[in-house]
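Input chain follows. Return structure tokens only.
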Amino acid sequence: MDDIRFRKYTPEDAISFKALNIEWLEMYFEVEPIDQRVLSNPETEILEPGGFIIMVEKDNKVIGTFAFIKKDYKLYEFSKMAIDPEYRGRGYGNLMMQFSINFAEKHHWKKIILYSSTILKNSIHLYRKYGFIEVPLEENCSYSRGNIKMELDLC
């Protein structure tokens, strides 16, 4: 697992970023209008407002991705995590979570939030393993599939 590399998104990653996320969404849910907007315009929807997109590579091949969407001062939403189906179940999700938390701590963020679905038992287990706790879900959640909100307090 030492051969995995995390790097910042570049415009050349737009196709991989969208494809990985669309594949994952179609496997478990459906692609919602907000997904289509964000995945088709990652620069304006995520990066320009102060967010980050990270690409995960193994042997110079993009195998995964995730994003941090800026919500407020030192508050980011962990979002758009997707792993190539060929690489799922091999522990890369753990490495991605470890990297994410270290990244947030380096940037001195106060909190990371995320929205998920309780049908994704492995994902919820992963988030809990890294200290995320369930908090009340807003009535106007952006995603119809989202039925759980979790947060990790970094202070």
